[in-house]
Amino acid sequence: MSSDVKNITEKTENASIVKIYDTNWCDMPAEIKSVCIGKMKFKERLSLRCTAKAERSLVDSQKIEFDDGCFRGKDKELTFILYSHDGRNFWKCSKDMNDAFELLNYIKKVGVFQTLFFSFRDSFTDYERFNTDDGLFTAKKVEFEQCDFDIVVAVLRKMKIGVESIKIYHDDIISDRLAGILEISHVQNASYWHIHDYKKTDSLHMVAQMWIDKNAKVESTFQVSHYGDGSFEEFLEHFDDCILSKAEHRVRIRTNNPDCHILLERGFDEVVEIDDFPQFFRLKVISAEMLESEYDNDCREWICRMDPKIYYAEDSFDGVYEYEDYNAYDYDDAYHFYDDDDYDWEPYYDY
Hints:
By secondary structure, the chain is α/β, with parallel strands linked by helices. It has helices at 2-17, 30-39, 42-48, 53-60, 97-110, 128-132, 149-156, 175-182, 185-189, 203-214, 231-238, 300-306, 317-320, and strands spanning 64-74, 77-83, 90-94, 111-120, 139-145, 165-169, 192-196, 221-226, 243-246, 250-254, 260-266, 279-287. The N and C termini lie far apart (57 Å). It comes from Caenorhabditis nigoni.
């Protein structure tokens, strides 16, 4: 026992005179710095990249993952809100567009997002820096609210390959502008996308025709809602010679690919009546082998993906959110998120 105590004492005394750190940060190898940077929060990285050109290059080479990113523009003011479940949250509001675009370009360079959310009443796409820089956003999902056509197109063209879901709300898209959106590769390849409250009746046959022309993959899905009649009938007229089966709220057409069909469904159940407004429609590319008995007769879930409020009168608050595809995160409440370490959610300007 005494020998054990003696050994421990000797080790402790020896350790006390050993220099654990014998270099400064600037003397550390890049691989060690990279590990440290990987542990830093977003605003800490912003501070570090201001210290020296070499540090800026090293910080800019390190990706950082976020659950959500929100970019809002109003009255020439740009707001950034970045959220991650592990506490790597960030908030900043700027009226200096040069300052804002420098930060935006850095976010594009290092940020990897599950969802990106854009809401701009004033178009920042008028600024040459956004249109000319070669940086691209990285995200699986992208959503637009109160954005005009120019912003939707500009942002979609600034996305890296791999966008799986696109949601467009409250925009001014009309027929010729929809045609422009359909030319974007992210829209052509997205497994899911929707337009909320589209003003015209031509979206269904335009999207279906794009899928036919591009030989879209099975499970590709498009949804749309609008306050008007005629979309279903216009679809039937456009594909009159391609119809394989037709019912009151469902039609199936063939495509140029013998392995694929396109199925159009109108939302219709005990809550959403056939004569109600808004009207909800879903287009899907399906396997030609799919049987009618395999159709999904429950429109409730896919309607909730667009507008869960439709079922508020029937369900409790908790019931509405049982559909995992509905994003219940309210970006207007993002100011309530805080940094787990220092509760610092004041606007941060030093980068």
